[in-house]
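Lab notebook, bench 4. We co-purified these components, and the gel suggests they stay together. Before we commit to crystallization screens, I want a quick structural picture of the whole thing.
Request: model the full complex, all chains together.
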Amino acid sequence: MLPSNSRFQRLSQAALSRSQFLQFAAGALLGFPLLAAAALSSDLAQNGGAPWTKDATASDRMGAILVSQFGPVKIHSYLSPLDGFHVNTQIIEGPTAVVIFDGQLLLPYADEVASYVQTLGKPVDRIILSHAHTDHWSGLQVLTERFADARVFALDGISDQLHARGQARLDSFRPIYGDRIATKVTVPTEIIAEGVQRIDGITYDFRRFVDAESDLQLAALLPEQKVLMAFDLVFSPNEHAFTVVDHFDHWMIVLEQLKALQDYDTITIGHDTPVHRSAIDSTITYVKRAREIHAASADAKTYSESLKAAFPDRQLASVVDFSASLLYAAPR
Ligand SMILES: [Zn+2]
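Here is the predicted assembly.
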């Protein structure tokens, strides 16, 4: 199942284009250490500003679910095991319906999300995709099968990105994950409007950010609950961040904009458990250091080793190898 060095060599010698090989190598770099670490139990450190309770209704669940109540609104945060990149699906339960944000990387974890949502006994009003990175949308294949009436939304531009690159991304992960990765790209069909709107009586303020961890990223504010859903704009102080594109400078500007949102003490993020707003500062520190190391590093290996050395206490070091392979594969 895991690619050995010899398989690497065979693949590199086979009729793969350079970009295909790099894609595969990136997936392999990411997959091997995470799969090895998957047996570890999830760390459910309570970082977030609000009190979170671990759901214990299913003893055989592979992922973990944290739940927090904000008046009439409940947020259920599904956290995948490590081999699913510790990616989250946020489930917002209102008085009469459920809104799901993001769809997981691996289909079995998306299936766990769907099964849990069904226990809530409310219809899925819609599914919203935060950005076009594969770990957030591959599992939409399962969610759209199991909630066939739910429309799938994303910012204007996300669907174009998925049409252009989605299948190649799935193909690059398939050697690692086999049939646990989606077989087809689920493309959002609805555009989510920026600004304030009410869904099931809950006020959302949808914001569009460009050139940060990804080219295009949604953030969702819940002003009445004082919750900021930052997705991959903010990372846990406990884990390495993905730095797959050279947007370091603008990402820091975006983080300062988030920091200016003074009242939002609870932040849900794309990977790992919810965090306190101090995670914005620790993400700025990380991105700033990554920018310096990128400027001083001629190749992916140097970048990766230097960044890991700069943050030796952060988990998911394999994420740095993955990031470096993509960061240095792009034209500089
Ligand atoms: Zn992500």
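The CA atoms of residues 99 and 139 lie 16 Å apart. Worth comparing against the SEC data before the next meeting. The chain is about 40% helix and 20% strand.
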